[in-house]
Amino acid sequence: MRYISTRGQAPALNFEDVLLAGLASDGGLYVPENLPRFTVEEIASWAGLPYHELAFRVMRPFVAGCIADADFKRILEETYGVFAHKAVAPLTQLGANEWVLELFQGPTLAFKDFALQLLGRLLDHVLTRRNERVVIMGATSGDTGSAAIEGCKACDNVDIFIMHPHNRVSEVQRRQMTTILGENIHNIAIEGNFDDCQEMVKASFADQGFLKGTRLVAVNSINWARIMAQIVYYFHAALQLGAPHRSVAFSVPTGNFGDIFAGYLARNMGLPVNQLIVATNRNDILHRFMSGNRYDKDTLHPSLSPSMDIMVSSNFERLLFDLHGRNGLAVSALMDEFKATGKLSVEDDRWTEARRLFDSLAVDDEGTCATIAEVHGETGYLLDPHTAIGVKAARECRRSLALPMVILGTAHPVKFPEAVEKAGIGAAPQLPAHLADLFQRAERCTVLPNDLKAVQAFVGQHGNRGKPL
Ligand SMILES: *Cc1c(COP(=O)(O)O)cnc(C)c1O
Asked: Could you give the domains of the chain?
């Protein structure tokens, strides 16, 4: 499989190089040159497979030529063996034909474990073979950081530096990062906000001199391997609900358009998906596009669902590429326009094409808490604020009551106690057994000023198993 850039000017790469790349050299994002397409018979034959075996069948075409079948099988069995629930991604029924796909049974209690547990192991495999070491730098508002650290903690070939905004992530989220100790794991609390952290990661990718030749790898959802891993659970859920002989709808709490883009790809690979609902919080740039063809940058509104607090959606460019007939130059021109004006819209027929599949809703904090309370009242089930937004959007935007509606349960409610408390239901979520002693564990973290040079000097000093590069 070869991968091409959404802006059409960068060289095509194989899977291994895409895994190790950040953005393409033309500023675009990598996508598969040709998407595999499965037949109805093939998909039907996968019913009942354990999660890792289904994962092998769905992802095999994407890694073909780079990772041998036997290695890939072993890696997948290990990856999904660490999940707490035997079903890996269990479905829980909320209402008539309405289901939550619980994607929070992994080590850090959010869906990002599905991709980052795999990414860490794939990196380890590829880097061992190449006899190479890399540095990972990432910025997190909470969930990505802990999932990336958990995914990479056992990788001998990786030093990982995760920046979070000092005192601006929840205590559970911070402890999930800072209590994982290892000479290759470095938590940095930046005296600034999430955007400051993100900017320093971007600047470090743009000018890598401070790394003295060591390669820098991205773990945010611009990395293709993350999207790839997320395609699998759409197949997993739909197969349990009657696919490929019945269509299924999904409602996806989304910020960077990563998770929902994976659902879009699952559909293009042959899964019968009749509707995809983009569920956002007040940071609703995606809803503005889907409802009115206006993709306009706004200011940031901090919310009770912080993992979706974004101003622009990095993976949206991957959808734009398809909407423009995979014409990289057209996408490049659009993105230039967006950079200059903070706005973009597409031609009417392209927007209509998007709307054939996608609906959307933006839900504010009040609506989020009301939905947590509503569902708790109906069923006793406790939603996290991100998943609650998905449920609300599913209930408002659903096209067919006859088809199953699956809401992606993106996090465990214990990660976001503030929203649950504000919902006023008197129930407090409990930490699952494997994290029961989280508040007793030792923490390790370095506080640094909001200063690129200071951060890069720190990476240079510790980037080789805690020693200077
Ligand atoms: C990251 C995250 C999201 C948003 O995912 P995208 O891929 O950015 O759309 C939603 N919910 C939770 C809990 C998350 O951690």
From this structure: 86-109+224-422 (3.40.50.1100)
Strands 248-253 and 215-217: unpaired
Span 182-200, mean pLDDT? 93
**pLDDT of residue 250 exceeding 80:** yes
User: Which own/partner contact pairs does 44-53 have at CB distance under 8 Å and 24+ positions apart?
Assistant: 44/244, 44/245, 46/235, 46/239, 47/239, 48/239, 51/80, 51/83, 51/87, 51/88, 51/89, 51/232, 51/236, 52/76, 52/77, 52/79, 52/80, 52/81, 52/88
Pocket test for ligand 1, best of 223, 410, 414, 420 (most atoms within 8 A of CB): 410
Query: Which atom of ligand 1 is nearest to 221's Cα?
Result: 7
Beta bridge partners of 186: 161
**Full-prediction pTM beyond 0.85?**
yes
Residues in the chain: 469
Residue 401 confidence (pLDDT): 96
Phi, psi of 35 (to 5 degrees): -80, 135
Is the omega angle on the peptide bond into residue 429 within 30 degrees of 0, that is, cis? no
**Residue 223 token pair:** 């990395």
What is the DSSP secondary structure assignment for residue 187, as one 8-state letter? E
pLDDT in tens, 271-282: 999 999 999 999
Ligand 1 neighbours (beta carbon < 6 A): 110, 112, 143, 221, 253-259, 307-308, 386, 410-411
pLDDT at residue number 428? 84
Q: CA 173 to CA 163: how far, in whole Å?
A: 13
Residue pLDDT, tens place only, 333-358: 999 999 999 999 999 999 999 999 99
Of 112, 104, 156, which Cα lies nearest the Cα of 138?
112
Write phi, then psi, for 186 (nearest 5 degrees).
-135, 110
Q: Is 356 helix (H, G, I), strand (E, B) or coil?
A: helix
Give the H or E element holding residue 80: helix 69-81
Which of 222, 229, 310 minimizes the C-alpha distance to 262? 229
Structure tokens at 423: 């919902």
Task: Give the side-chain half-sphere CA count within 13 A for 257.
Answer: 24
How far apart are alpha carbons 366 and 363 in whole angstroms? 8
Pocket test for ligand 1, best of 101, 102, 254 (most atoms within 8 A of CB): 254
How many whole angstroms from 108 Cα to the centroid of ligand 1? 13
Question: Cα separations (Å) of 95 from 243, 396, 402, 407?
Answer: 19, 14, 12, 11
Tokens found for residue 376: 């708790």
